[in-house]
């Protein structure tokens, strides 16, 4: 029997068959891992909004007049802080006065008070101890209650009165 020669086709077929019977080896990647730290230091921090003007409106000397304004404070969790309000023109936190630039000297003041509560029992002092409150991380609203006491006929002629209070946040 005569086998025809196919030349290179038999050799190629033999090589393909030989490769088919070899065990297959998969390509494997080698990996290496390590770790690293991520750090940050959170500093004590506070932010405070500016209260709107505490505008009492028109005052009749025979009747006490009240008003209020509010502000917010937001401090990092656990940060202790205090809030102080200056005495304004009078320099006294227990005897605050608004003054008038147009009234006669000696008769140009109108007494008022600033309080932490709506019963007007707790005066806003000028505390700067830094330990009155503790931050929660959330904004906290504080209301300032103002009161002009009645019976100021002799010391407050009819005109406009103003005062400027400095609000201090210490932490």
Automatic annotation (TrEMBL):
InterPro entries: Spore_coat_component, Spore_coat_U/FanG. It comes from the Bacteria. The keyword Signal applies. Residues 1-29 form the signal peptide. Keywords: Signal. Residues 32-168 form the Spore coat protein U/FanG domain. SMART domains: SCPU. It holds the Pfam family SCPU. This is SCPU domain-containing protein. It comes from Variovorax gossypii.
